[in-house]
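Batch job 17 of 40 flagged for manual review because the log was empty.
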Amino acid sequence: MKMVFFLLLAFACSMAAESKVISFSTIFLDSAGKFYFTYPITMPSQAALLELQRNFIKQRFGENSSSKEPAAALSLYKEQNKEIEILKDQVSFPLPGIIQFITYYYEYSEGNAHGENGSEVGIYALADGKKIELKSLFTKGSEKDITQMIIKEFLKMQNLQSLSDYSYTQKESDFAPVSAMVSELGLDFVYPTYKLAPHSAGEQMIFLSWSSLKPYLNKQSVIYQKLKF
């Protein structure tokens, strides 16, 4: 019989001139801690809490599970995805008023020679619990310039002069930003296994500082308002 354990965690984050506290509950589906899901249970705003709860469940389990209770969503997800070997997550507060939720999985499909890691990053505003889309951080029409910056940094990491020298992919479109982790210093653009490099290299992360991205940042975005230049 599967057992569900609950663990309460409290995180303090600075919002404006005062400190706000948000509490989380972590559901463990197994005693080994290989399958768990963290979700918010208390916030100053009930409306923001409900929105953030829905978004956490949606990010981890998909749109069809957004109305389910966390324990039921976790159990159903594990039952329907038997190839999943590990399911875990991480919550952080990279900037004041911003919550970052990173979900990880490790799957080992039958017939495959090796398992595969995967992750998804969600960035949310604590004020209303809404998701902050990556594209909203940048000005319209800036994607091409940002992609070129990412490629330049990637080539620097690989000690190469151009994509034509790289043996895995030469497609510039593969470097278009889709997912990124936020920090006080900048953005780590995240690319899944096989997107930019072979399986042995795993997921790829390419960092660009806020100062280098500044010309392309949307000054009206929630993130921009939290930055200090």
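Reviewer: the log was empty due to a logging misconfiguration, but the result itself is present. The chain is about 20% helix and 35% strand. Unflagging and moving on to job 18.
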